Automatic annotation (TrEMBL):
Keywords: Amino-acid transport, Signal, Transport. It comes from Paracoccus aminophilus JCM 7686. Residues 1-20 form the signal peptide. It comes from the Bacteria. Belongs to the leucine-binding protein family. SUPFAM superfamilies: Periplasmic binding protein-like I (SSF53822). Residues 62-365 form the Leucine-binding protein domain. This is Leucine-binding protein domain-containing protein. GO terms for biological process: amino acid transport. The keyword Signal applies.
Length: 400
């Protein structure tokens, strides 16, 4: 990958640096250079409960690198050259790093950040670039806080919770014990599960909040504390079929499987988890896709990698189909009814015009295998079955 040091860039031929054209060798066809930026904003946080979940240094970037390889494979036949650089930031430095990107007149920026930072960066960008959200899941970003300059590649909370809810109702597990963390992002996810329960006819028989009191989570006797505390925390719950956990902060949910007072399955943030991607997925060419990524990155693919890959592949697909690198033309095509992208999920993926969310199936994974894929067959829709997941057109609060 060319210049893989600070960010992923995508643009067109023209007079500015972002629209540079390569000087061809004698007899060679000039290549239109298509550039984009990938900006990952890392926050300080406690280490994950399991050391197996420690984030790799190239999280998100590795998926972007694979996308550039894929784009160039087709692009070289179309006279297009895709280039990638990578940049990391903290919440304190994100604005300055975005200013550097905009100073280069880069028209596409893939953002890997939390909800608040993604929203702030979208406002900072304005009409100077197109933001592709590859991490933030907040429903507000697709609703009252939606921005016309932002496409959402990462699935929303509503899509993830609807995907799990459909499966639980198919299993005839309508009675849920909902356990939500005390952090704001936990509460937002918990609200999405409450909405999903209402939407699909489930009943939340009891809700509890797990308060994060701080302190060490990894000690020599940690499992001893968990074995005593979690059964007590879940004791005396009203009769339920399944526990649903909302723990975006990663504080408690992983401790719950096999530790609940009642012998019930755990889902949500642990146990059976709704995700955009999983390293065990093999269907629809997934095995070959995973193998290519693992050869490149020397590790399994994660959600952020998949979402970054998908964001840049969308730009590449639009450039190939339109035979253009004009940012306005590419955005218009992606939002049109002619656009679709293959995502190794068995269905074409398209963008919703009412909130700029990418339609996509949701994988339900147990950590070792994919147990199911939503939408479930029983849930139909008048235009796209994928619109049974998340906020549909009549429900949207988004006003561009």
């Amino acid at each position: 990958m060319k210049n893989a040091a600070a960010f992923l860039l995508l643009a067109v031929a023209g007079t500015s640096p972002a629209f540079a054209q390569e000087t061809p060798a004698t007899g060679a066809k000039a290549l239109t250079q298509i550039r984009a930026a990938v900006l990952r904003v890392d926050r300080e946080s406690l280490p994950p409960i399991s050391r197996l979940d420690l984030p790799p240094a190239d999280l998100g970037f590795a998926g972007a690198r694979l996308a550039i390889e894929d784009n160039d494979t087709t692009g070289k036949f179309m006279g297009q050259d895709f280039e990638a650089l990578e940049v990391t930031a903290t919440p304190d430095t994100a604005k300055a790093e975005m200013d550097k990107i905009l100073a280069e007149k880069i028209p596409f920026v893939v953002v890997l950040a939390d909800d608040a930072t993604t929203l702030a960066l979208s406002d900072q960008v304005g009409d100077r670039a197109l933001v592709l959200n590859a991490r933030a899941r907040g429903d507000n970003l697709r609703g009252k806080d939606c921005r016309v300059n932002t496409l959402h590649i990462a699935p929303s909370y509503a899509m993830l919770t609807d995907g799990l809810a459909q499966f639980l109702m198919w299993k005839r597990w309508p009675n849920w014990f909902l356990v939500t963390g005390s952090h704001p992002e936990d509460q937002a996810l918990g609200a999405a599960y409450q909405r999903a329960a209402t939407k699909f006819g489930a009943k939340i028989v009891e809700s509890r909040v797990y308060e994060d009191t701080g302190g060490a989570r990894r000690t020599d006797t940690g499992y001893v504390q968990v074995q005593k505390q979690m059964p007590v925390f879940t004791q005396d719950a009203k009769a339920y079929d399944v526990m649903v956990t909302a723990d975006e902060a990663g504080i408690f949910a992983a401790y719950l499987p096999y530790q609940t007072w009642d012998p019930r399955p755990v889902t949500g943030s642990a146990g059976l988890v709704p995700q955009s991607w999983d390293a065990s997925f093999e269907a629809y060419g997934g095995m070959q896709f995973q193998n290519r990524f693992e050869k490149l990155a020397k590790r399994p693919m994660r959600d952020e990698d998949y979402q970054s890959w998908l964001a840049l592949r969308m730009i590449g697909e639009a450039a190939t189909r339109t035979q253009s690198a004009d940012p306005a033309a590419l955005k218009a095509f992606m939002l049109s009814d002619k656009f679709e992208i293959a995502g190794f999920k068995g269905q074409k993926l398209t963008l919703r015009d009412w909130d700029h969310q990418l339609r996509q199936p949701i994988l339900l994974t147990s950590g070792k295998i994919v147990a199911s894929v939503s939408p479930q067959d029983e849930y139909l829709h008048q235009s796209s079955q994928l619109d049974t997941l998340g906020i549909d057109r009549p429900e949207t609060e988004c006003k561009f």
